[in-house]
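All the exercises in this workshop are built on plain-text protein records. Sequence and backbone structure share a record, each on its own labelled line. The structure tokens are whole numbers drawn from a learned vocabulary of backbone shapes. The record below serves as our worked example for the rest of this section.
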Amino acid sequence: MSVVSRKLSRVLWLIVLVGAGWCPDSFAQVQPQSACQIATAPRTAIYFVNGVTTTLDEARLNGGKLELEFLNKLPTMAPSVQAMCHLFFLNINPTAGAVTDFLEAGQQRLGLTSTAVWTGLEGFGLVTSGAIVQVLQRPLTNADQIDQATITRHAAAYREQIAAPSCRRVLVVPHSQGNLYSNASFDNVFSQTPNPPVGTLKIVGVATPADTVRGNGLYRTSSTDLLIEGIRRVLPGTLPPNTNWSFSPLLLSPTYSGGHSFIGYLTAEPSRTQILMDMESSLVALASVNPC
């Protein structure tokens, strides 16, 4: 993506966010979490994990959108969720560029070679948005090794939150390739000793290229997500779509990556409402577990 295209993309994202109530003045409209004023109230750590080709600034923007949408919805959520103080964090999945990121995602899924990933996607010809077409047309390269250091770092953050003295429950909301890292981090957390209490870590996936959500977690993938549809044609075991963006004009914009962007998922309906419902349901389950 060129510098001009990236700047235009960020401007369009900000326009959508302002339209959804995201701007400096809008923070005054979000009610403070009353539970956070109570020292003995249970704490939860909510992590956003970004997907492919996402810069640090874009990941922060996505995480901010998640926090804002959640806090706006919080006053209508279940009493057990309102009784918890929710703290928001970012677990960055460093981008190495579009080609490396997508190859890494393919390798994570089934140990596929770069040739298998791109030949499969290109052969079906499903993804037509400009940015993704440019990626598919680049020369094939060898897949890099999975970033085990990122998995270890993510898992360590979750374990630290769950363990004393923090004693926090953890909810992870990953997007795109972030789902693969979150699944691997989940396995890492519970493979270490001492094991954290079962049920203290939950995942709510968004736009997942995976075939499962660890811990019997929930997910939302749109039927209008062209990227995940392309992956599903290559990897039929990929979780099926269970939401959509309806007839949102966002689908017509290259900014929203063929219906794949996290901002789009949290702006369009019904995906926005369903993701927030999944978060609420997962937090209700977390509330019943004592981390320490």
